[in-house]
Amino acid sequence: MAEIYMQVEKKNSELILSEAAQKLKMMFRSSDIITRIKEECFLVFMKDIKESSIVLLKCQKICRTLQDVYSYGNKKVEVTVSVGASILTCEDSFEVLLK
Q1: What three-state secondary structure class fits 82?
Q2: How many CB atoms sit inside 10 A of residue 25's CB?
Q3: Chain Cα centroid distance, residue 19
């Protein structure tokens, strides 16, 4: 969702990001943690994932769902999405991942 703030007024960029947050919330379980860590950056923490293929499918779904053209007023903003994923082992910690 890079550079939304550069393309539209701050209040409209917040509307786009709020809509994205709602879409993310609908994609994940209630036990998953979804948070906005920077202006245009979200973090999702999924616990107890049995297969890594589930993570790949979620990443693909995020891109399909959030990458769109959003209209606010007389402006249209094309939003692009990039996704990264890490899978922690029992020896890893969430704190290490965030560094």
Answers
A1: coil
A2: 12
A3: 11
Q: Which helix (H) or strand (E) holds 66?
A: helix 52-66
Encoded amino acid at 61, one letter: K
* 28-47 pLDDT tens trace: 999 999 998 887 889 898 88
> Residue with structure tokens 């860590």?
37
CA distances from 7 to 13, 51, 57, 93 (A): 8, 38, 30, 37
* Phi, psi angles (nearest 5°) of residue 87: -115, 120
Say if CB 69 and CB 79 are below 8 A apart: yes
